[in-house]
Amino acid sequence: QVQLVESGGGLAQAGGSLRLSCVASGTIFSIDTMAWYRQVPGKQRELVAGANSRGRSNYADDVQGRFAISIDTTKNSAFLQMNSLNPEDTAVYYCNVNVIQRPGEYPFNYWGQGTQVTVSA
Fold first, then answer.
1. Coil, helix or strand for 89?
2. In whole angstroms, how far apart are CA 61 and each of 2, 3, 106, 107?
3. What gap in Å lies between CA 99 and CA 108, rounded to an integer?
4. For residues 102 and 106, what is the distance between their CA atoms, to the nearest angstrom?
5. Residue 45: partners with Cβ closer than 8 Å, 6 or more residues away
6. CA dist., res. 40 & res. 7, Å (int)
7. 121 SS3 class
8. Which of 36, 42, 86, 107 is 20 to 30 A from 93, comparing alpha carbons?
């Protein structure tokens, strides 16, 4: 089993910055991918940014150039630096990870509990 602990959410003003952190622990042989999703009430959860262990990353169009994802596979951690925040970024942000728990196994997918980000105008 793998547990994800997120931190760094909170309140920011428009134009401000926040940095989210996610640490995975438990039965982990290696990390395949880590990603951040977000969800607002009444809408589907959407991908914000993702990165893999080979250094590739991708972003949602509306955060490109403002957000930056980084992962540290040696510490089973992911970070999301969010700059130039606007009220539309208000959501619960979830960490997601694909973990290879034992050599030769396929990755398993896990979600964090979510952290609230609120951006005031």
1. helix
2. 30, 29, 30, 27
3. 5
4. 9
5. 37, 38, 39, 94
6. 18
7. coil
8. 107
Q: How far is CA 32 from CA 2, 76, 78, in A?
A: 14, 10, 12
Tokens of 2: 């793998």
Distance of CA 68 to the CA centre of its chain: 10
3-32 per-position pLDDT tens digit: 999 999 999 999 999 999 999 999 999 999
How many Å apart are CA 106 and CA 104, to the nearest integer? Answer: 7
**CA 52, CA 47: separation in Å to the nearest integer?**
14
Tokens standing for 90? Answer: 């208000």
40-66 pLDDT, tens per residue? 999 999 999 999 989 899 999 999 999
Token digits of residue 68: 């930056």
Q: Write the single-letter amino acid at 84.
A: S
66, two tokens: 């403002």
